[in-house]
Amino acid sequence: MQPHPQPHAQSPPYPPPSRPRRGGSPWGLLLAVPAVVLLVTQQVLPAIRTLLLGVETGEGPITRSVRPEFVTGMLATFGLGAAFATLGLCLGLVVGAALRRGSALLAQLGLGLLGLTLLAFAPLLHGIGVLDRFGIGALWPHLAVLVLPTLVIGGVLGAISRSARVTTGISVAVVLAGAAWSAQTDMGYVMGAVSPGHDIYRLGFAMMDLQGAAVLSVLLAVPVSILGIVAMLVLLASRARLRLADGQRAGSPAGVIGVVLSVVAVVAAVVVAWPWLGQTLSLGGPGVESAAIMARTLSLDLGNAAVLTVICGAAAIGIGYLRPIGAASPWLLLIFSPWFFTGLFPTVVARFEVARESGGLGVEPYAGLTPPFVVVPLLVLLTFIADGARRAREEGGRIPWGRSLAIGLLGVGFTLWVQRQTALHTFVFSYDTDVPSAQYVVLTSFTRMEDPAVGLLVPLPMLMIAAFVFALGVAAFGRMSLAVAGTVPARSVTGVPPGGAPPGHVPPLPDPTSREDRP
Protein backbone atom coordinates (compact mmCIF):
# COMPACT_ATOMS: atom_id res chain seq x y z
CA MET A 1 0.00 0.00 0.00
CA GLN A 2 1.36 3.38 -0.98
CA PRO A 3 1.74 6.02 1.74
CA HIS A 4 -0.83 8.78 1.91
CA PRO A 5 0.57 11.87 0.15
CA GLN A 6 1.30 14.95 2.22
CA PRO A 7 -1.10 17.84 1.56
CA HIS A 8 1.80 20.08 0.65
CA ALA A 9 3.43 17.70 -1.82
CA GLN A 10 2.11 19.56 -4.88
CA SER A 11 2.74 23.03 -3.46
CA PRO A 12 5.27 25.19 -5.27
CA PRO A 13 8.47 25.78 -3.34
CA TYR A 14 8.42 28.97 -1.29
CA PRO A 15 11.48 29.87 0.77
CA PRO A 16 10.93 30.52 4.46
CA PRO A 17 12.08 33.84 5.88
CA SER A 18 15.75 34.05 6.73
CA ARG A 19 16.70 33.77 10.35
CA PRO A 20 17.73 37.12 11.88
CA ARG A 21 21.43 37.55 12.42
CA ARG A 22 22.38 38.50 15.94
CA GLY A 23 25.67 40.06 14.99
CA GLY A 24 26.13 43.45 13.39
CA SER A 25 28.48 45.29 11.10
CA PRO A 26 31.15 47.53 12.62
CA TRP A 27 30.72 49.80 9.61
CA GLY A 28 27.60 51.09 11.31
CA LEU A 29 29.68 52.89 13.92
CA LEU A 30 31.73 54.51 11.18
CA LEU A 31 28.60 55.90 9.53
CA ALA A 32 27.52 57.43 12.85
CA VAL A 33 30.85 59.20 13.44
CA PRO A 34 30.02 62.40 11.44
CA ALA A 35 26.83 62.87 13.47
CA VAL A 36 28.73 62.45 16.74
CA VAL A 37 31.43 64.89 15.63
CA LEU A 38 28.86 67.52 14.65
CA LEU A 39 27.00 66.94 17.89
CA VAL A 40 30.17 67.65 19.86
CA THR A 41 31.12 70.75 17.87
CA GLN A 42 27.63 72.26 17.60
CA GLN A 43 26.06 71.29 20.91
CA VAL A 44 28.51 69.96 23.48
CA LEU A 45 31.23 72.60 23.10
CA PRO A 46 28.78 75.56 22.98
CA ALA A 47 27.06 74.16 26.08
CA ILE A 48 30.41 73.98 27.93
CA ARG A 49 31.26 77.51 26.84
CA THR A 50 27.86 78.74 28.04
CA LEU A 51 28.50 77.18 31.44
CA LEU A 52 31.98 78.73 31.68
CA LEU A 53 30.62 82.11 30.60
CA GLY A 54 27.98 81.96 33.30
CA VAL A 55 30.42 81.22 36.14
CA GLU A 56 33.12 83.56 34.86
CA THR A 57 32.28 86.29 37.35
CA GLY A 58 31.54 84.08 40.33
CA GLU A 59 28.17 84.45 42.01
CA GLY A 60 27.49 87.91 40.64
CA PRO A 61 25.39 86.97 37.63
CA ILE A 62 23.42 84.39 39.59
CA THR A 63 22.25 86.74 42.33
CA ARG A 64 21.74 89.60 39.87
CA SER A 65 20.01 87.82 36.99
CA VAL A 66 17.93 84.93 38.26
CA ARG A 67 14.62 86.39 39.26
CA PRO A 68 11.64 84.44 40.55
CA GLU A 69 9.75 85.49 37.43
CA PHE A 70 12.20 83.52 35.30
CA VAL A 71 11.63 80.32 37.28
CA THR A 72 7.86 80.72 37.31
CA GLY A 73 7.82 81.59 33.60
CA MET A 74 9.91 78.52 32.80
CA LEU A 75 7.66 76.25 34.85
CA ALA A 76 4.58 77.79 33.24
CA THR A 77 5.86 77.18 29.71
CA PHE A 78 6.81 73.61 30.60
CA GLY A 79 3.33 73.01 31.99
CA LEU A 80 1.47 74.68 29.11
CA GLY A 81 3.52 72.78 26.55
CA ALA A 82 2.83 69.45 28.24
CA ALA A 83 -0.89 70.29 28.51
CA PHE A 84 -1.27 71.26 24.83
CA ALA A 85 0.76 68.23 23.72
CA THR A 86 -1.45 65.97 25.82
CA LEU A 87 -4.59 67.53 24.35
CA GLY A 88 -3.41 67.09 20.77
CA LEU A 89 -2.20 63.57 21.43
CA CYS A 90 -5.50 62.47 22.98
CA LEU A 91 -7.51 63.93 20.11
CA GLY A 92 -5.23 62.22 17.64
CA LEU A 93 -5.54 58.87 19.39
CA VAL A 94 -9.32 59.10 19.07
CA VAL A 95 -9.05 59.77 15.34
CA GLY A 96 -6.45 57.04 14.92
CA ALA A 97 -8.54 54.49 16.81
CA ALA A 98 -11.39 55.07 14.37
CA LEU A 99 -9.09 54.81 11.36
CA ARG A 100 -7.61 51.56 12.67
CA ARG A 101 -11.03 49.89 12.38
CA GLY A 102 -11.30 50.78 8.70
CA SER A 103 -9.59 49.48 5.62
CA ALA A 104 -6.01 50.32 4.73
CA LEU A 105 -7.30 52.74 2.08
CA LEU A 106 -9.42 54.63 4.62
CA ALA A 107 -6.52 54.70 7.07
CA GLN A 108 -4.25 56.22 4.43
CA LEU A 109 -6.90 58.75 3.43
CA GLY A 110 -7.55 59.84 7.01
CA LEU A 111 -3.85 60.04 7.90
CA GLY A 112 -3.12 61.94 4.70
CA LEU A 113 -5.72 64.53 5.66
CA LEU A 114 -4.18 64.81 9.11
CA GLY A 115 -0.82 65.38 7.46
CA LEU A 116 -2.18 68.54 5.84
CA THR A 117 -2.66 70.09 9.29
CA LEU A 118 1.13 70.20 9.71
CA LEU A 119 1.10 73.24 7.41
CA ALA A 120 -0.54 75.23 10.20
CA PHE A 121 2.40 74.56 12.54
CA ALA A 122 4.15 77.82 11.67
CA PRO A 123 5.34 79.28 15.01
CA LEU A 124 6.74 82.53 13.58
CA LEU A 125 3.75 83.43 11.43
CA HIS A 126 1.30 82.11 14.01
CA GLY A 127 2.96 84.25 16.68
CA ILE A 128 2.52 87.36 14.52
CA GLY A 129 -1.15 86.48 14.12
CA VAL A 130 -1.49 85.99 17.88
CA LEU A 131 -0.06 89.47 18.46
CA ASP A 132 -2.64 90.97 16.10
CA ARG A 133 -5.47 89.18 17.91
CA PHE A 134 -4.45 89.15 21.57
CA GLY A 135 -1.79 91.85 21.89
CA ILE A 136 1.53 91.91 23.73
CA GLY A 137 2.16 89.36 26.45
CA ALA A 138 -0.27 86.62 25.38
CA LEU A 139 1.94 83.53 25.14
CA TRP A 140 -0.55 80.72 25.61
CA PRO A 141 -2.33 81.21 22.25
CA HIS A 142 1.08 80.93 20.59
CA LEU A 143 1.89 77.70 22.44
CA ALA A 144 -1.53 76.28 21.52
CA VAL A 145 -0.25 75.70 17.97
CA LEU A 146 1.55 72.69 19.47
CA VAL A 147 -1.78 70.83 19.35
CA LEU A 148 -1.41 70.38 15.57
CA PRO A 149 1.76 68.23 15.29
CA THR A 150 0.83 66.21 18.37
CA LEU A 151 -2.60 65.60 16.82
CA VAL A 152 -0.88 64.08 13.79
CA ILE A 153 1.43 61.94 15.93
CA GLY A 154 -1.52 60.76 18.00
CA GLY A 155 -3.47 59.90 14.86
CA VAL A 156 -0.60 57.83 13.47
CA LEU A 157 -0.04 56.16 16.82
CA GLY A 158 -3.71 55.29 17.28
CA ALA A 159 -3.96 53.91 13.75
CA ILE A 160 -0.88 51.68 13.59
CA SER A 161 0.17 50.82 17.16
CA ARG A 162 -0.40 47.19 18.09
CA SER A 163 0.84 47.43 21.67
CA ALA A 164 -0.24 49.44 24.72
CA ARG A 165 3.40 49.46 25.81
CA VAL A 166 4.49 51.12 22.57
CA THR A 167 1.62 53.61 22.66
CA THR A 168 2.45 54.61 26.22
CA GLY A 169 6.18 54.97 25.55
CA ILE A 170 5.78 57.16 22.48
CA SER A 171 3.03 59.22 24.14
CA VAL A 172 5.27 60.02 27.11
CA ALA A 173 8.07 61.08 24.75
CA VAL A 174 5.69 63.35 22.79
CA VAL A 175 4.36 65.08 25.92
CA LEU A 176 7.90 65.71 27.17
CA ALA A 177 8.83 67.05 23.73
CA GLY A 178 5.92 69.49 23.88
CA ALA A 179 7.05 70.76 27.28
CA ALA A 180 10.64 71.22 26.07
CA TRP A 181 9.65 72.99 22.85
CA SER A 182 7.37 75.44 24.66
CA ALA A 183 10.09 76.42 27.14
CA GLN A 184 12.47 77.18 24.25
CA THR A 185 10.11 79.06 21.94
CA ASP A 186 11.94 81.95 20.32
CA MET A 187 8.81 84.08 19.93
CA GLY A 188 8.67 85.09 23.59
CA TYR A 189 10.94 88.10 23.13
CA VAL A 190 9.06 89.23 20.00
CA MET A 191 5.71 88.93 21.74
CA GLY A 192 6.87 90.53 25.00
CA ALA A 193 5.63 87.51 26.96
CA VAL A 194 7.11 86.17 30.18
CA SER A 195 9.12 83.15 29.07
CA PRO A 196 12.70 81.86 29.27
CA GLY A 197 13.35 83.06 25.72
CA HIS A 198 12.17 86.58 26.54
CA ASP A 199 14.46 86.87 29.57
CA ILE A 200 17.52 85.37 27.84
CA TYR A 201 17.16 87.62 24.80
CA ARG A 202 16.49 90.72 26.93
CA LEU A 203 19.57 90.17 29.08
CA GLY A 204 21.93 88.98 26.38
CA PHE A 205 21.06 91.11 23.38
CA ALA A 206 19.10 94.10 24.68
CA MET A 207 21.13 94.77 27.86
CA MET A 208 24.31 93.00 26.59
CA ASP A 209 24.64 91.14 29.88
CA LEU A 210 26.02 87.96 28.35
CA GLN A 211 27.05 86.48 31.70
CA GLY A 212 23.59 86.85 33.13
CA ALA A 213 22.01 85.46 29.97
CA ALA A 214 24.42 82.51 30.10
CA VAL A 215 23.28 81.67 33.63
CA LEU A 216 19.65 81.63 32.52
CA SER A 217 20.62 79.53 29.50
CA VAL A 218 22.20 76.91 31.77
CA LEU A 219 19.13 76.88 33.99
CA LEU A 220 17.01 76.27 30.89
CA ALA A 221 19.34 73.69 29.32
CA VAL A 222 19.51 71.40 32.36
CA PRO A 223 15.78 70.49 32.58
CA VAL A 224 15.50 70.32 28.78
CA SER A 225 18.40 67.85 28.66
CA ILE A 226 16.89 65.80 31.48
CA LEU A 227 13.58 65.65 29.61
CA GLY A 228 15.45 64.44 26.52
CA ILE A 229 17.23 61.68 28.41
CA VAL A 230 14.03 60.53 30.10
CA ALA A 231 12.10 60.56 26.81
CA MET A 232 14.77 58.54 25.01
CA LEU A 233 14.94 56.00 27.84
CA VAL A 234 11.16 55.58 27.82
CA LEU A 235 11.09 55.31 24.03
CA LEU A 236 13.83 52.68 23.90
CA ALA A 237 12.41 50.78 26.89
CA SER A 238 9.11 50.43 25.04
CA ARG A 239 11.02 48.38 22.43
CA ALA A 240 8.90 49.95 19.71
CA ARG A 241 9.68 48.77 16.21
CA LEU A 242 8.21 49.99 12.95
CA ARG A 243 6.96 47.25 10.61
CA LEU A 244 6.99 48.69 7.11
CA ALA A 245 4.49 46.22 5.62
CA ASP A 246 1.27 45.47 7.46
CA GLY A 247 -1.93 44.94 5.52
CA GLN A 248 -4.04 43.47 8.31
CA ARG A 249 -7.10 45.69 8.54
CA ALA A 250 -10.57 44.90 9.79
CA GLY A 251 -12.26 46.84 7.02
CA SER A 252 -15.07 48.07 9.27
CA PRO A 253 -17.23 51.01 8.12
CA ALA A 254 -16.22 52.69 11.38
CA GLY A 255 -13.13 53.90 9.52
CA VAL A 256 -15.34 56.46 7.77
CA ILE A 257 -15.79 58.17 11.14
CA GLY A 258 -12.02 58.58 11.36
CA VAL A 259 -11.93 60.19 7.92
CA VAL A 260 -14.71 62.60 8.91
CA LEU A 261 -12.81 63.55 12.07
CA SER A 262 -9.71 64.12 9.94
CA VAL A 263 -11.67 66.51 7.73
CA VAL A 264 -12.80 68.40 10.84
CA ALA A 265 -9.14 68.66 11.93
CA VAL A 266 -8.16 70.10 8.54
CA VAL A 267 -10.90 72.73 8.75
CA ALA A 268 -9.79 73.67 12.27
CA ALA A 269 -6.17 73.98 11.10
CA VAL A 270 -7.22 76.30 8.26
CA VAL A 271 -9.07 78.50 10.75
CA VAL A 272 -5.99 78.63 13.00
CA ALA A 273 -3.65 79.46 10.12
CA TRP A 274 -5.93 81.86 8.25
CA PRO A 275 -4.39 85.08 9.69
CA TRP A 276 -1.22 84.32 7.71
CA LEU A 277 -2.52 81.78 5.18
CA GLY A 278 -4.54 84.49 3.46
CA GLN A 279 -1.39 86.60 2.97
CA THR A 280 0.75 84.08 1.08
CA LEU A 281 0.56 86.29 -2.05
CA SER A 282 2.02 89.27 -0.17
CA LEU A 283 5.63 89.83 -1.26
CA GLY A 284 6.38 93.11 0.50
CA GLY A 285 6.66 96.68 -0.71
CA PRO A 286 8.11 97.96 -4.00
CA GLY A 287 11.65 98.18 -2.57
CA VAL A 288 11.82 94.50 -1.65
CA GLU A 289 13.83 92.27 -3.97
CA SER A 290 11.38 89.43 -3.66
CA ALA A 291 12.86 87.18 -6.36
CA ALA A 292 16.39 87.36 -4.92
CA ILE A 293 15.16 86.84 -1.35
CA MET A 294 13.09 83.78 -2.25
CA ALA A 295 15.93 82.34 -4.33
CA ARG A 296 18.39 82.73 -1.48
CA THR A 297 15.96 81.25 1.05
CA LEU A 298 15.34 78.29 -1.26
CA SER A 299 19.07 77.73 -1.70
CA LEU A 300 19.49 77.68 2.08
CA ASP A 301 16.64 75.15 2.34
CA LEU A 302 18.34 72.90 -0.20
CA GLY A 303 21.63 73.19 1.67
CA ASN A 304 19.98 72.35 4.98
CA ALA A 305 18.18 69.41 3.37
CA ALA A 306 21.41 68.02 1.93
CA VAL A 307 23.27 68.26 5.24
CA LEU A 308 20.40 66.78 7.27
CA THR A 309 19.90 63.90 4.83
CA VAL A 310 23.57 62.98 4.64
CA ILE A 311 24.42 63.32 8.34
CA CYS A 312 21.25 61.99 9.96
CA GLY A 313 20.59 59.47 7.19
CA ALA A 314 24.07 57.96 7.43
CA ALA A 315 23.85 57.65 11.22
CA ALA A 316 20.36 56.11 10.96
CA ILE A 317 21.53 53.49 8.44
CA GLY A 318 24.54 52.73 10.59
CA ILE A 319 22.52 52.27 13.78
CA GLY A 320 19.20 50.91 12.47
CA TYR A 321 20.19 48.84 9.44
CA LEU A 322 23.79 47.74 9.98
CA ARG A 323 23.28 47.29 13.75
CA PRO A 324 26.90 47.51 14.93
CA ILE A 325 26.12 45.96 18.32
CA GLY A 326 23.32 43.66 17.22
CA ALA A 327 19.79 43.87 18.54
CA ALA A 328 20.85 46.41 21.18
CA SER A 329 21.96 48.92 18.52
CA PRO A 330 18.98 51.30 19.01
CA TRP A 331 20.34 51.99 22.49
CA LEU A 332 23.20 53.85 20.80
CA LEU A 333 20.69 56.68 20.40
CA LEU A 334 21.24 57.39 24.11
CA ILE A 335 24.41 59.19 23.06
CA PHE A 336 22.21 61.85 21.47
CA SER A 337 19.52 61.88 24.17
CA PRO A 338 20.62 65.02 26.12
CA TRP A 339 20.05 66.97 22.90
CA PHE A 340 16.82 65.18 21.94
CA PHE A 341 14.83 68.39 22.51
CA THR A 342 17.60 71.01 22.79
CA GLY A 343 17.23 73.91 20.39
CA LEU A 344 19.31 77.04 19.85
CA PHE A 345 18.26 79.13 22.83
CA PRO A 346 20.36 77.35 25.50
CA THR A 347 23.58 77.99 23.50
CA VAL A 348 22.87 81.14 21.46
CA VAL A 349 24.75 83.37 23.94
CA ALA A 350 27.92 81.30 23.62
CA ARG A 351 27.61 81.28 19.83
CA PHE A 352 27.25 85.05 19.82
CA GLU A 353 30.27 85.44 22.14
CA VAL A 354 32.42 83.28 19.85
CA ALA A 355 31.38 85.32 16.81
CA ARG A 356 32.15 88.57 18.64
CA GLU A 357 35.59 87.43 19.79
CA SER A 358 36.52 86.12 16.36
CA GLY A 359 35.34 89.26 14.57
CA GLY A 360 32.59 87.35 12.82
CA LEU A 361 29.67 89.55 13.84
CA GLY A 362 27.71 90.56 10.79
CA VAL A 363 28.78 87.39 8.97
CA GLU A 364 26.30 84.55 8.90
CA PRO A 365 27.80 81.39 10.42
CA TYR A 366 27.70 78.15 8.42
CA ALA A 367 27.17 80.15 5.21
CA GLY A 368 23.64 80.96 6.36
CA LEU A 369 22.58 77.37 7.09
CA THR A 370 20.57 76.79 10.25
CA PRO A 371 22.22 74.74 13.01
CA PRO A 372 22.14 72.26 14.59
CA PHE A 373 22.76 69.86 11.72
CA VAL A 374 22.10 66.82 13.90
CA VAL A 375 18.34 67.05 14.55
CA VAL A 376 17.84 64.18 16.98
CA PRO A 377 14.07 63.66 16.43
CA LEU A 378 14.78 63.30 12.69
CA LEU A 379 17.61 60.89 13.48
CA VAL A 380 15.28 58.77 15.63
CA LEU A 381 12.61 58.63 12.90
CA LEU A 382 15.13 57.65 10.22
CA THR A 383 16.60 55.02 12.53
CA PHE A 384 13.15 53.47 12.98
CA ILE A 385 12.76 53.34 9.19
CA ALA A 386 16.20 51.74 8.73
CA ASP A 387 15.44 49.20 11.44
CA GLY A 388 12.11 48.39 9.78
CA ALA A 389 13.85 47.87 6.44
CA ARG A 390 16.31 45.47 8.06
CA ARG A 391 13.49 43.50 9.67
CA ALA A 392 11.56 43.33 6.40
CA ARG A 393 14.61 41.79 4.73
CA GLU A 394 15.17 39.33 7.57
CA GLU A 395 11.55 38.17 7.42
CA GLY A 396 11.92 37.28 3.78
CA GLY A 397 9.74 40.06 2.43
CA ARG A 398 10.57 42.99 0.18
CA ILE A 399 11.51 46.38 1.55
CA PRO A 400 8.72 48.84 0.64
CA TRP A 401 11.01 51.53 -0.67
CA GLY A 402 8.18 53.86 -1.66
CA ARG A 403 6.73 54.09 1.84
CA SER A 404 10.17 54.32 3.41
CA LEU A 405 11.19 57.20 1.17
CA ALA A 406 7.86 58.96 1.72
CA ILE A 407 8.32 58.93 5.51
CA GLY A 408 11.97 59.94 5.23
CA LEU A 409 10.96 62.84 3.00
CA LEU A 410 8.28 63.77 5.53
CA GLY A 411 10.88 63.93 8.31
CA VAL A 412 13.32 66.07 6.33
CA GLY A 413 10.56 68.27 4.90
CA PHE A 414 8.96 68.98 8.26
CA THR A 415 12.37 69.79 9.76
CA LEU A 416 12.97 72.33 6.98
CA TRP A 417 9.47 73.73 7.50
CA VAL A 418 10.19 74.31 11.19
CA GLN A 419 13.60 75.81 10.40
CA ARG A 420 11.90 78.35 8.15
CA GLN A 421 9.93 79.42 11.20
CA THR A 422 13.05 79.88 13.35
CA ALA A 423 13.36 83.53 14.35
CA LEU A 424 16.22 83.59 16.87
CA HIS A 425 19.17 82.49 14.74
CA THR A 426 18.05 84.75 11.90
CA PHE A 427 17.57 87.77 14.14
CA VAL A 428 20.93 87.41 15.91
CA PHE A 429 23.21 86.44 13.03
CA SER A 430 21.60 87.41 9.72
CA TYR A 431 22.16 91.15 9.54
CA ASP A 432 24.50 92.98 7.14
CA THR A 433 23.97 90.57 4.24
CA ASP A 434 23.58 91.66 0.64
CA VAL A 435 20.46 89.57 0.18
CA PRO A 436 18.69 88.82 3.47
CA SER A 437 16.73 85.67 4.15
CA ALA A 438 12.94 85.68 4.10
CA GLN A 439 12.83 85.19 7.88
CA TYR A 440 14.84 88.36 8.42
CA VAL A 441 12.64 90.41 6.09
CA VAL A 442 9.46 89.18 7.80
CA LEU A 443 10.81 89.95 11.28
CA THR A 444 12.15 93.40 10.47
CA SER A 445 9.04 94.42 8.55
CA PHE A 446 6.90 93.27 11.45
CA THR A 447 8.89 95.28 14.00
CA ARG A 448 8.54 98.34 11.75
CA MET A 449 4.76 97.86 11.62
CA GLU A 450 4.96 97.15 7.88
CA ASP A 451 3.49 94.42 5.68
CA PRO A 452 5.10 91.19 6.99
CA ALA A 453 5.50 89.84 3.43
CA VAL A 454 4.33 86.33 4.31
CA GLY A 455 4.67 85.27 0.68
CA LEU A 456 8.44 85.55 0.91
CA LEU A 457 8.58 83.00 3.72
CA VAL A 458 5.88 80.61 2.50
CA PRO A 459 5.20 81.32 -1.19
CA LEU A 460 2.19 79.56 -2.66
CA PRO A 461 4.21 77.01 -4.73
CA MET A 462 6.19 75.97 -1.66
CA LEU A 463 2.96 75.73 0.33
CA MET A 464 1.57 73.30 -2.24
CA ILE A 465 4.73 71.20 -2.31
CA ALA A 466 4.79 71.04 1.50
CA ALA A 467 1.13 69.99 1.54
CA PHE A 468 1.89 67.15 -0.88
CA VAL A 469 4.94 65.97 1.08
CA PHE A 470 3.15 66.07 4.44
CA ALA A 471 0.01 64.31 3.19
CA LEU A 472 1.97 61.63 1.30
CA GLY A 473 4.37 60.98 4.18
CA VAL A 474 1.75 60.69 6.91
CA ALA A 475 -0.52 58.59 4.66
CA ALA A 476 2.34 56.11 4.16
CA PHE A 477 1.97 55.08 7.80
CA GLY A 478 -1.47 53.66 6.96
CA ARG A 479 0.05 50.41 5.68
CA MET A 480 2.53 50.03 8.52
CA SER A 481 2.35 48.98 12.15
CA LEU A 482 4.15 49.64 15.42
CA ALA A 483 4.78 46.68 17.67
CA VAL A 484 7.11 45.49 20.42
CA ALA A 485 10.44 44.16 19.15
CA GLY A 486 10.37 40.38 18.81
CA THR A 487 6.65 40.21 17.97
CA VAL A 488 6.12 37.77 15.11
CA PRO A 489 3.75 39.06 12.41
CA ALA A 490 0.67 36.92 12.09
CA ARG A 491 1.37 35.89 8.51
CA SER A 492 4.98 34.88 9.22
CA VAL A 493 4.08 32.34 11.91
CA THR A 494 3.60 29.69 9.21
CA GLY A 495 6.78 30.61 7.41
CA VAL A 496 5.16 32.87 4.85
CA PRO A 497 6.69 36.36 4.56
CA PRO A 498 4.58 39.42 5.38
CA GLY A 499 4.26 40.13 1.67
CA GLY A 500 1.97 37.13 1.27
CA ALA A 501 2.22 33.82 -0.59
CA PRO A 502 1.10 32.69 -4.04
CA PRO A 503 -2.58 31.71 -4.36
CA GLY A 504 -3.26 28.16 -3.28
CA HIS A 505 0.06 27.83 -1.51
CA VAL A 506 0.07 25.54 1.52
CA PRO A 507 3.01 26.09 3.89
CA PRO A 508 5.26 23.03 4.31
CA LEU A 509 5.10 21.03 7.52
CA PRO A 510 8.16 21.32 9.77
CA ASP A 511 10.78 18.57 9.47
CA PRO A 512 10.87 16.70 12.80
CA THR A 513 14.48 15.66 12.16
CA SER A 514 15.75 19.22 11.69
CA ARG A 515 17.76 20.70 14.53
CA GLU A 516 17.80 24.24 13.16
CA ASP A 517 15.16 25.60 15.52
CA ARG A 518 16.19 23.63 18.58
CA PRO A 519 17.84 25.51 21.44
How would you portray this structure in words?
- The chain is an all-alpha fold.
- The protein has one domain (26-55, 63-279, 288-484).
- Helix content is 61%, strand content 2%.
- The chain is built from 20 helices and two strands.
- The protein is globular and about 60 Å long.
- Residues 5-20 and 490-519 have low confidence and may be disordered.
- Keywords: Membrane, Transmembrane, Transmembrane helix.
Summary?
The protein is an all-alpha fold and 519 residues long.
Residues in helix, %? 55-70%
Q: For the terminal residues, how far apart are their CA atoms?
A: 38 Å
Tell me the number of structural domains.
Answer: 1
Percent of residues in beta strands: under 5%
Spans of at least 5 consecutive residues with low confidence: 5-20, 490-519
Dominant shape: globular
Radius of gyration: 25 Å
Largest sheet: 2 strands, antiparallel
In total, how many beta strands? Answer: 2
Strand neighbour order, sheet with most strands:
1-2
Give the rounded overall mean pLDDT: 82
**What is the N-to-C succession of helices and strands?**
HHHHHHHHHHHEHHHHHHHHHE
Keywords: Membrane, Transmembrane, Transmembrane helix
Biased composition (Pro residues): 1-18, 499-511
Region (Disordered): 1-21, 495-519
Transmembrane segments: 27-45, 74-99, 106-126, 138-160, 172-194, 214-236, 256-277, 302-322, 331-349, 369-389, 401-419, 453-477
Index terms:
single chain; 519 residues; mainly alpha; two-stranded antiparallel sheet; 2% strand; globular; disordered C terminus; transmembrane helix; transmembrane
